[in-house]
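Session log. Operator J.P. requested a structure for one protein chain; no other inputs attached. Running the standard single-chain path with token output.
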Amino acid sequence: MVAAAVAGCAPSTSGGGNGAGQDEKSGTVRVWLFREVGNKPKEKVVQGVVDRFEKQHKGVRVAVQYIPVNSRAEKIKGALNDPDSAPDVIEYGNTDTAGYVADGGLADVSDEFAKWDATADLDPTARKSVTVRGKQYGAPLFVGVRALYYRTDVFKDLGLEPPRSLGELAATARKIRAERKDMYGIAVGGAYTYGALPFVWAHGGEPAKEVRDGKFEATLDSVGAKKGIRAYTSLFGDDNCPAAKCAAMGGNETVEAFAGGKAGMAIGGDFNRQAMEDGAVKGKYAIVPLPGVERGSIAPAFAGGNNIGVLKSSRHRSLAVELMKELAGKRTQERLFDAMGFLPTFSDTRKQAAAREPFVKPFVATLESGTKFVPTSPAWGRIDASLVLPGMFQQIVSGKQGVAGAAADAARKMDEAFER
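Structure written below.
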């Protein structure tokens, strides 16, 4: 969903060079956070944390810089190569944890994590997102999941009910397309990895499995994975979402199609609500969990989101860890939900949020039914960036390869990345 957001150039609030192993108890603690669209509410919440922290720690100043996400790859590399320009605390995408650990960038905070009482309420997938080989390298900040958006007016006009299985989903999509030729039944994208993976997981498949500590092996060509790939790619065609238009679509494009009134259904995240409210479907949509294979079940969703971590090069380790806990703590997560709609990673905090805001209930139900995460390997970043899974889906929906051949090719490419 959201990726890491850090910069390698020295911020204007730089407080001097860093030195791994040092633990200064005063001075400037530097923080880099992700700049959101409409960032002011987030800044207000964070400023409240900063004000409290500075009052509690005399002689300490917290300098926060908000960093654009689009240049993250080069900038984080620069920060790791030049500790003098690096912050003490960073916000980063949860799929990037393993890569940053492999690069020696994140500090192991396992001891402090174990002593933090709040972690008893962390959901398992959020905990996994900061864990590499049994050690913790940060604290989860928020989680994002996807569910099924559908057009209430179209469903009413056509006498349809929200689908309760993936089979019903496909049949419902085709009914909508048959009656509304100007609409996709469900908008799907050949480049929508995190919209497709729930189909794989629901059929018992996995993109990869851990064969030993930290070592992964691709399993896209397993029986369950191929069933899921087949179920997803069957939604591309003139009877739902024509391959000529939909093969190249990613998650943003499918959300835009639904928001613009061009689809009866779409798989979208809790973080896509504003797009719907700003679009043609305002007041004409509802949300349910994406169903699984069995009627009434929920398909496992990818648990995206962001984490807060401490850089290994920090010269203020103790202060940085305490600030990490404050920024990712229950109080802050509750306020970020109210300000930005970010779903908390603490189960009790999330339930309280859902009680106040009914919109999030389908997403909470999805989280509570069990979510999935990508392989915690630094290779996943390379696999994702090189579009291995989108390439596989596009080969299939274009008719260039069958499911078995495309899955085998993708698995081979994944294994090559895992072995690097």
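Operator note: The longest helix spans residues 40-56.
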